[in-house]
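Weekly modeling sync, notes
Attendees: S.R. (lead), two postdocs, one rotation student

Agenda item 3: backlog of single-chain predictions. S.R. asked that every request posted to the team notebook include the full sequence so nobody has to chase files. The rotation student volunteered to paste the first one in as an example of the format we agreed on. Action items at the bottom.

Example entry:
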Amino acid sequence: MTNNANTPLAERMRPTNLDEVLGQEHITGKGSILRTALEKGVVPSMILWGPPGVGKTTLANVITQTLQVPYFQLSAISSGVKEVREVIEQAKHLVGAVLFIDEIHRFNKSQQDALLGAVEKGTIRLIGATTENPSFEVNAALLSRCQVYVLRALEKQQLIQLMQDALNRDALLQQKNIQLTETEALINLSGGDGRKLLNLLDLVVQTGASLITDEIVLKIAQQKIALYDKSGEQHYDIVSAFIKSMRGSDPNGAVYWLARMIEGGEDVKFIARRMLIFASEDIGNANPNALLLANGTFDAVSKIGYPESRIILSQCATYLASSPKSNAAYEAIAKAQQAVSKHGDLSVPLHLRNAPTKMMKQMDYGKNYQYSHLGENNFIEQEYLPDQLKNTPFYTPGNNPRENEIKKFLRERWKGKYDY
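Predicted structure, as returned to the notebook:
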């Protein structure tokens, strides 16, 4: 921990071992996968996936300090294939070298491919950090060679503890006799980002405030907001407002927050991906065309980029905001997953099983299954759920014109079996 006044508080408070890391006990606690691997010195290449300010860079530093191995760090924003190859060449002459790549989701396929051979041969141990789902942003070949660790957003109590630790342990703050009487504004403005929280706290202290209240924090933040949001992490607050505007059927709010993201240089695929998710989560079968348009938007902006993509994004955002809403599909899969978690791997009913062999037929696989197209209106009533879940309604269509048609169809078919 450094005491240099020019060093941001978040950097001064950066943990140096796993015991100091807050909020990630599922991978850093005693007996956890990462801690066990680190204790044995057999840490694999990995992708650390989680929101900003939850400890991705910190974990990379802790791992290399604990292993005491050569450490290289690149940012995907400013580095390319040339820099990757230079590091790999240096690592060939070293033992156990670690390469940390921040925002690895910003590497394109050729840049990620440049890492493959070195990771596979063990020339380097890769630690990639990303705020984006690696299933979409890291190519399959590289992902298959890495362990993915999911980092969780910090909870309120952990954020409060983070600030208390800073006040109690940081030598520069200790000199100022700071009294933290209210924390709500600090926590809300930080959006769960620990780095942002500490640097905002430091900013408030630097203005001369020794008694920290919500009112003081809000006043200072409004005056100095640019000083603690240089890295653009505010985009998580803005995309939240964007999504909530579309959910609330307000195209004006949606297009305003879209403009904020565009003007801030937000990745077009980041915006389009959020709309693609929204189309199913918040509109679903109330308007199935929403998913088609959102998917078309994602494909289009991936090919075009700025500035023309702003028009396509605006068309999609205003359409989604102006569309009927339903979260019935989202609720259906959530209920079904809860049932899976509660009941485990229930057996598939015999009549629904496939019977490609004679032995399976002798075991009654597929027996009594009725081919729906042989029935009136291509329907024959039979049970499709395991015995333990009979008559359980997971999907309940929403109250909108399109899903009211679905309700009518299902009521006619199932005649009271489910509460539609």
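Discussion: group reviewed the output briefly. The longest strand covers residues 125-130.
Action items: rotation student to repeat for the remaining queue; S.R. to check formatting next week.
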